[in-house]
Task: inverse folding
């Protein structure tokens, strides 16, 4: 048996175990789809799609986690980030670098073939993010499902709601609190892609790099992100041994003044968040803590019961789909 095939088999077996007996948590529950698609296991189907992408491009795992965060932070975890349109969330400035839409499309196609009109796009994002965390080495947690899909997607709301590159630590804490999330959740989840160029080339208009950043890191990032470059990609985790692994080295680097983003270093210097950074940097249970934060994120502003809808296509609301079919 090939190594990749064996790994996928192990992952799917684990997901079958995790999607076992239902466990209720408020409006959502673990195992919501059990028995709703005959003998098929929805989470294992999604896991197969994500696993296949993992062996093709491991960097997409971080994209799926980020996709979940950006969806939940704007009007709740309702799959609205997936909707196409000239003024949809996809077109918002903070979402221009978001990836992973095609993976959710593939997962939707796979489950629709087995049980059409049952599994929400919002749940597909949450399940895919859970699988991405596991495949990134961040441990496994039982994902709650039962979300419904939203009907509205607004770039304007996304532009004012998603944390921006100039956000301060107090503003970030307040933004997360507005979603019912704690400062610890914020520190665990805030790893995002903000503007890096100004920090390493022209910090606050000085023409110099941010003085709080370690000089070796400045030099490394400048070599990867030359001034006036149109597009650059850099890992937030500057640990050369685990750049694509979800672990606590990100927090260890912040304490060493090697944080990539401005907010990274501010988290390490702020009197409220520095103890959190230090605790996570030395934490032996980081995977469990990150998983718990993801569960709390996944419960933000969800639609359940008869709210919203179950989209046939994740990119358009059902009214538009039915109109196209009748036309």
Result:
């Amino acid at each position: 048996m090939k190594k990749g095939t064996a790994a996928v088999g192990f992952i799917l077996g684990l997901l079958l175990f995790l999607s076992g007996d239902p466990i209720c948590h408020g409006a959502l529950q673990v195992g919501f789809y059990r028995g709703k698609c005959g003998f098929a296991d929805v989470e294992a189907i999604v896991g197969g799609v994500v696993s296949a992408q993992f062996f093709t491009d491991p960097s997409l795992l971080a994209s799926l986690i980020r996709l979940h965060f950006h969806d939940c932070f704007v009007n709740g975890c309702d799959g609205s980030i997936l909707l196409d349109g000239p003024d949809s969330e996809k077109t918002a400035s903070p979402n221009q670098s978001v990836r992973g839409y095609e993976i959710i499309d593939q997962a939707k196609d796979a489950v629709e073939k087995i049980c059409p009109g049952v599994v929400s796009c919002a749940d597909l994002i949450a399940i895919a993010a859970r699988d991405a965390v596991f495949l990134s080495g961040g441990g496994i947690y039982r994902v709650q499902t039962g979300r419904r899909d939203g009907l509205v997607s607004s770039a304007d709301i996304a532009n004012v709601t998603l944390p921006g590159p100039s956000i301060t630590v107090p503003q970030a804490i307040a933004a997360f609190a507005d979603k019912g999330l704690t400062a610890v959740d914020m520190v665990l989840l805030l790893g995002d892609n903000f503007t890096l160029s100004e920090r390493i080339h022209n910090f606050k208009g000085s023409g110099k790099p941010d003085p709080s950043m370690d000089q070796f890191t400045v030099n490394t990032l400048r070599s990867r992100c030359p001034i006036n470059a149109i597009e650059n990609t850099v890992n937030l985790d500057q640990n050369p041994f685990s750049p694509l692994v979800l672990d606590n080295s990100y927090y260890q680097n912040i304490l060493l003044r090697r944080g990539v983003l401005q907010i990274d270093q501010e988290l390490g210097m702020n009197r409220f968040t520095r103890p959190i950074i230090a605790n996570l940097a030395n934490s032996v249970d980081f995977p469990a803590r990150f998983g718990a934060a993801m569960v709390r994120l996944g419960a933000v502003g969800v639609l359940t019961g008869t709210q919203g809808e179950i989209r046939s296509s994740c990119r358009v609301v059902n009214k538009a789909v039915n109109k196209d079919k009748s036309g």
In short: The domain at 3-162+291-319 is CATH 1.10.520.10 (Peroxidase; domain 1). The first helix runs from residue 3 to 18.
